[in-house]
Amino acid sequence: MTRNNVLMKSLRLSIVLVMAMVFGILMAVFKGDGSGIRMAIGNSSAPWMILPFVAAAISTRHRVIQSALVGLGASLIGLFGFYFANIFVLDIGPHPELSPYPWVADFLATLRSGKIYFILACLSGPIFGILGGFLHQKRSNMILVFTATLFVLEPCFGLIYVRFFSGFTYSFTYYVDYPMVWLVEAVFGVILFILIIVRFQPTKRS
């Protein structure tokens, strides 16, 4: 591998990770500090699963370890950006027990509130990173199929979770409170499926 190739790969990876940070910040800003449709959209999981998938597809060839690390890095950096932005977005309140410096205390408080998502990212990031790198290497339209599937299945899994596991700690009632958000997400996934079928259907020979 030439020096130019190494530099180009490093540059591409750096851009991808910076974009992951920007993605997290924008998600936090869009979600805002309050309830409503913005909160429901901001709490959707599909974009966070697509993030490591796309990051690995853009910046790696299919090397399992490399794809996994890129997916993990994109997920964690995106979450870092999300919770860093929450310092300025959310009304967190004082936390002097965490740090004598208010902004440090705010940041530590936001990180602590999202620790479950960092743990989950350590699992989902590598998995979706490997999948993204593999499908990109195969030049497969399964990348689009994967994206459409996430948008269709997330509302279904959310409703199942609320129906059967609402007594647990994380009860995502916004799936019920804002059904139009999840209906639009599912419809978007179905439309994407239709476009994939139309675009990639085999042509008939005359």
UniProtKB/TrEMBL annotation:
Record's keyword annotation contains Acetylation: no
Keyword terms, alphabetized: Membrane, Transmembrane, Transmembrane helix
A Pfam short name: DUF6518
Bilayer-spanning residue ranges: 12-30, 36-57, 69-90, 116-135, 142-162, 182-200
Protein name per Swiss-Prot or TrEMBL: Uncharacterized protein
